[in-house]
Amino acid sequence: MSFPPPVNRMEQRSTSGDLLSKDSNTSTWETTITAPNGSINTNSSYCHITFQTTIYLSFVFILVGIAGNATVMWLLGFRMRRNAFSVYILNLAVADFLFLSFQFVYCLYLVIYIFYYINDTTYVSFYFLLFSFVVTRFTYFSGMNILSAISVERCLSVLWPIWYHCQRPRHTSAVTCALIWALSLLLSLLEGVACGLLFNSIDNFWCQTSNYLTDSWLIALFVVLSVSSLTLLVKIFCGSQRIPVTRLFVIIVLTVLFFLIFGLPFGFSFLLDKLLRSFPFLKTCDVFVIVLLSCVNSCANPIIYFLVGSISHRRFQRKSLKLFLQRALQDTPEEEEDRERDS
């Protein structure tokens, strides 16, 4: 899903409800809000204000997020030794960086397309939107899968610590991330409009099957994230054998929480895609807000890392970003860190 075409030029489109005449089976999010009978279902002024507000806010969060995730990628990739969880954090930063980078290009395309009335060809627009469709879902699936893997690994390390530290293969994180990237690419290619091009029809049996599999996978990941996070919280705050709170635990909980609040609506919009095709009056400009929330989610992760790493005994300390990130990924309580430094 990407930003739909702007409202102030929708009237120039076909009244068939399609963004482009290339394919009538284009995804809902890539259609206009013009109903099949040619009437506008959403107030134009509302859409125009919503678009302008959200796209400029998106630019701010995108630029901050790109800088933050690039810093995390540089530090974890070239300046720090990696452990099991830092490999996941590195790959999550790559996914967020790619997601935000492409959203920046697409927002810039929209601004030029709207405010400067640049005319483009139908085929250029169609294939650009198709590329947007695939890349956006690819990076979103990758981030959600990586975050789920982080939560599951953390649960395993807490529930069965001896088995986890003794039986876990050394390169589990790297292999898991490689499989996640491959799976995410496959899901993004075999879902929606991209599948329709591969099989010449979006109503093809294989496309319908892949759509259901993708939807089921998203729901399963949501369940995994919710259950694993709840398990960690229960293990810390309830029961006779409570585990100590570490910075790594705080990072995982906050990252999952931000995703459930800001990132999950983007994924649920995929599930609503079929419903919106059946009920055109539901096609509103609220999709702009959903994309803005997803940008906030990708922007928040590096801020969480550095913020948690900068706090010591509830005080902020002025040190290098590298040290902040190292401390943020440590899996030892703060009291033990202080004793180690004193010794």
UniProtKB/TrEMBL annotation:
Annotated family: Belongs to the G-protein coupled receptor 1 family.
Parts of the chain that traverse the membrane: 55-76, 88-118, 124-152, 173-199, 219-238, 245-267, 287-308
Membrane topology according to the record: Multi-pass membrane protein
Compartments where found: Cell membrane
PROSITE patterns xref list: G_PROTEIN_RECEP_F1_1 (PS00237), G_PROTEIN_RECEP_F1_2 (PS50262)
Domain of life from the UniProt record: Eukaryota
UniProt biased composition (Polar residues): 13-25
Keywords from the named record: Cell membrane, G-protein coupled receptor, Membrane, Receptor, Transducer, Transmembrane, Transmembrane helix
Region feature Disordered, mapped onto this chain: 1-25
GO cellular component, one term: plasma membrane
Limits of the G-protein coupled receptors family 1 profile domain: 68-305
GO function term, MF aspect, one: G protein-coupled receptor activity
Source organism of the structure: Myodes glareolus
Listed Pfam families: 7tm_1 (PF00001)
InterPro entries with a match to the protein in the record: GPCR_Rhodpsn, GPCR_Rhodpsn_7TM, MRGPCRFAMILY
Name recorded for this polypeptide: G-protein coupled receptors family 1 profile domain-containing protein
